[in-house]
Amino acid sequence: MDGPRIGIIGTESSHVDHMVRYFNVERNADDARVVAIAQANRDVGVARVVERAEDLLGLVDAVIVADRDGRRHAAQAIPFLRAGIPTFVDKPLAANVEDAEAIIRTAVDSGTPLTSFSALRWHPDFLALPAVRPVSVVATGPVDPASPYAGIFFYGIHPVELALALAPGPIRDVRVRQVPGAIVATATVGDTAVATTWCGRTKNPYLFI
Questions:
Q1: Is the entire prediction scored with pTM above 0.85?
Q2: Nearest to 69 by CA among 142, 153, 168, 136
Q3: CATH topology of domain 120-208
Q4: Percent of the chain topping pLDDT 70
Q5: Which residue from 49, 52, 141, 188 has the highest number of Cβ atoms inside 10 Å of its Cβ?
Q6: What architecture does CATH give domain 5-116?
Q7: Is the pLDDT reported for residue 150 higher than 70?
């Protein structure tokens, strides 16, 4: 094939099924195709499967790190960034500041394209919000601090990213507390007061501006 060859690391996430369908079935990205999978625990319809993430080096032109556990993302992404291979890290980017900084630093030092985000920022309802600078933003979403996929980091990105997209700027005065049934984080972002609440019973994120 002549188009970009994409590799995916990890198959636990249902996101992988959507990615394979998007590239290989619906062909929404011109000639780009998912050609190989690493660290697979199930069949996702891609013929070539390799055991280790680094086995994709030399086989692909871009890589998607889709492992559900953010604690493994730095080790999976950094070799590809060092090799100059554009990398998309599915949420979350990492599960601690040190790993996140290492991933970003490697991308900057090597000049390699890197992206990672919550897909909710592309939701039509969110994109339809008016362009304003709010005085305050409250975002809520589901969380399971006991999740085997790095606890709060697994779903925690969703409300945080929506809040920060609405209130860009330097972050300061961060405070986090756990209350019965929820975790609450507050901060000042630019000139905006931001509060993020993760509730175990909340199924979908909500925004209050």
A1: yes
A2: 153
A3: Dihydrodipicolinate Reductase; domain 2 (3.30.360)
A4: 94
A5: 141
A6: 3-Layer(aba) Sandwich (3.40)
A7: yes
Domain with CATH 3.40.50.720 in the chain: 5-116
Residue 9 — very low, low, confident or very high, per pLDDT cuts 50/70/90? Answer: very high
As a whole number of angstroms, the distance between CA 39 and CA 192 comes to 42
pLDDT tens digits, one per residue of 151-179: 888 888 888 888 888 888 999 999 998 88
Please enumerate in sequence order all residues whose Cβ is within 8 A of that of 155, keeping only pairs 6 or more positions apart, or say none. Answer: 141, 142, 143, 144, 147, 198
